[in-house]
């Protein structure tokens, strides 16, 4: 059996509102409200500020049914929205539902017309079901948007275009007519009212009562101004904390990426170390096997043996090319030192350059022949695999 919804105590005190919200927001288990822990303090702040600004508002927890049929226990602010039409104050009954992701997303606002009220057709900001889609809700910005500014915005919009009509039935009639209330032709006796009465013209009051009411109004205005200032300071602090949190998350991602790169580099170095150790073992084994062979002289020309005729020819061309390069370098040094005359230097460099050109041209032909031989060899092996 679902427990009855939690209700706010009847005494309209901000302290009791705060106690009520602290109780319902701290519940755990199946009766816990579906709000994120990091936003509960801001939800409590918004509702307390709303009750302080509009005493007709009463927060409570109740069941809310979504369009898809899901039912969830949510906080709501029930009461009226004051409007001024033709110099008369009216009160529009409305409920503000704080959905699961509030205050990251805007609340859902519904009008609650009484039996003698009807919703105005084709209202620009209210549909037939009473759902309100005002600009402030569409432009909701977290964390600066709040419930107090929302109600103020709705009050201004509905003052310009009231969303409710009064159903007037002067005599029994199967087809009653609907007259808009408030409207220019309507009497103030048909004012829209709900939980709090409208403020109409009163007879002459006691001056002391007027003074007391004006003094309380000034005090309330000062309290509201202080509350708005504190709210702006807290919002600025929260924005700073959110910016710091985003910076820390970015740095955390950078550190995690750097750590992954370091681990990958470590694995690569460990693999290279294993390869070096393996090659070291191979070289040490070769040295042990060939240590006795170093006693005799080794001819440098016999240290390397080409595998075929093309490789031998390439080795000879490369050696001749490098020998010519060294000779030209020596001639440059001799010319700088004044050991040989300039005309002899030019004559020898010309002859050596011609010789070096032939060696390099021959090396290019040999290289082309080697590439052709490699391609032919690979094609032969591919044919063996395909067959």
Automatic annotation (TrEMBL):
Its main location: other. One of its GO terms (molecular function) is ubiquitin binding. Coiled coil: none annotated. Residues 308-376 form the SB domain. Residues 24-168 form the UEV domain. GO terms for biological process: endosome to lysosome transport; protein transport. It is found in: Endosome. InterPro entries: ESCRT-I_UEV_domain (IPR052070), ESCRT_assembly_dom (IPR037202), SB_dom (IPR017916), UBQ-conjugating_enzyme/RWD (IPR016135), UEV_N (IPR008883). Residues 161-207 are annotated as: Disordered. GO terms for cellular component: ESCRT I complex. The keyword Thylakoid does not apply. Residues 184-197 have a biased composition (Low complexity). The keyword Acyltransferase does not apply. Belongs to the ubiquitin-conjugating enzyme family. UEV subfamily. This is Protein ELC-like.
């Amino acid at each position: 059996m679902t427990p009855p919804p939690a209700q706010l105590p009847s005494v309209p005190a901000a302290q009791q509102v705060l106690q009520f919200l602290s109780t319902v927001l701290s519940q755990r288990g199946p009766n816990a409200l579906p709000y994120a822990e990091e936003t509960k303090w801001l939800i409590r702040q918004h509702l307390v500020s709303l009750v302080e600004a509009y005493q007709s508002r009463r927060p409570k927890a109740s069941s809310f049914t979504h369009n898809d049929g899901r039912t969830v226990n949510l906080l709501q602010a029930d009461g009226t929205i004051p409007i001024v039409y033709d110099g008369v104050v009216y009160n529009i009954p409305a409920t503000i539902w704080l959905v699961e992701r509030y205050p990251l997303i805007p609340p859902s606002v519904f009008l609650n017309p009484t039996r003698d009220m009807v919703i105005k057709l084709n209202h620009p900001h209210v549909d037939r079901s009473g759902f309100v889609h005002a600009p402030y809700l569409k432009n909701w910005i977290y964390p600066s948007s709040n419930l107090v500014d929302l109600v103020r915005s709705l009050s201004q919009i509905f003052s310009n275009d009231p969303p409710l009509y009064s159903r007037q039935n002067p005599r029994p009639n199967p087809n009653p007519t609907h007259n808009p209330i408030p409207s220019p032709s309507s009497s103030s006796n048909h004012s829209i009212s709900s939980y709090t009465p409208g403020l109409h013209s009163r007879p002459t009051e006691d001056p002391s009562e007027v003074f007391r009411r004006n003094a309380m109004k000034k005090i309330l205005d000062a309290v509201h101004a202080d509350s708005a200032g504190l709210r702006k300071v807290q919002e600025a602090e929260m924005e700073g904390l959110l910016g710091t949190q985003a910076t820390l998350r970015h740095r955390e991602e950078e550190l995690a990426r750097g750590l992954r790169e370091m681990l990958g580099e470590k694995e690569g170095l460990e693999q290279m170390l294993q390869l070096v150790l393996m090659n070291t073992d191979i070289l040490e084994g070769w040295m042990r096997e060939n240590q006795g062979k170093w006693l005799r002289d080794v001819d440098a020309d016999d240290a390397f043996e080409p595998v075929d005729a093309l490789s031998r020819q390439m080795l000879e061309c490369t050696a001749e090319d490098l020998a010519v390069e060294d000779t030209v370098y020596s001639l440059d040094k001799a010319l700088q030192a004044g050991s040989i005359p300039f005309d002899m230097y030019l004559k020898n460099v010309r002859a050596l350059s011609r010789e070096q050109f032939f060696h390099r041209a021959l090396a290019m032909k040999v290289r082309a022949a080697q590439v052709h031989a490699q391609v032919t060899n690979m094609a032969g092996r591919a044919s063996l695999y395909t067959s």
